[in-house]
Amino acid sequence: MTEFTPETLIQQALEARKQAYAPYSRYRVGAAVLCEDGTVVTGCNVENASYPATICAERVALTSAVAQGKRTFVALAVATATGGSPCGICRQVMAELGPDMVVYISDAVGNFRATTVAELLPDSFTGEQLL
Ligand code: THU
Q1: Mean pLDDT by 10 residues, the chain (131 residues)
Q2: Cβ–Cβ under 8 Å, residues 90 and 60
Q3: Which residue blocks in the chain are alpha helix, DSSP H?
Q4: pLDDT of amino acid 4
């Protein structure tokens, strides 16, 4: 477990980005999610020749964390070449699993901005609407 700062979480997202499997887009993405218990779970994008089968780095990190028994998430860092913003599907998954997360969006050299899931996906569809 590493002491949390935005920079350390971003560094882990940058490390995860090295594992990206992105032979089609060449857009490599890494993500690192900080769990409530202090552990960090990482992910990278994994593309597929059948393009819609591709999964984004943020969803790999979050779903891996859930598979490891984690349920509460504090922060998520995502790293791309250009500091690109998370896609809509990932925002929806963040709203489901980590609605209170701070999100750090970094470029390839660690320049970042901080935002929140609420800012990224206001007025989101949630399980409450299914009741
Ligand atoms: N991608 C992510 O991993 N996260 C995002 O939030 C945006 C898109 C990936 C999916 C695909 O492998 C590549 O970036 C180009 O869309």
Answers
A1: 85 98 98 98 98 98 98 98 98 98 98 98 96 89
A2: no
A3: 6-17, 57-67, 88-97, 117-120
A4: 85
Which of these, 124, 123, 115, 129, lies nearest to 97 by C-alpha position? 124
Which residue, 58, 57, 125, is CA-closest to 92?
A: 125
Catalytic positions, written as ranges: 58
Atom of ligand 1 nearest to the CA of 45: 3
pLDDT of 1 reads 52
Residue 2 has a pLDDT of 55
DSSP-derived secondary structure letter, 125: -
pLDDT (0 to 100) of residue 16: 98
**Ligand 1 centre and the CA of 131: distance in Å?**
32
For residues 95, 108, 11, 117, the Cα torsion angle rounded to the nearest 10 degrees is -10
* Closest-lying ligand 1 atom to the alpha carbon of residue 28: 14
Residue 20 CA, ligand 1 centroid: distance in Å: 10
Q: What dihedral do alpha carbons 68, 19, 117, 9 form, nearest 10°?
A: 80
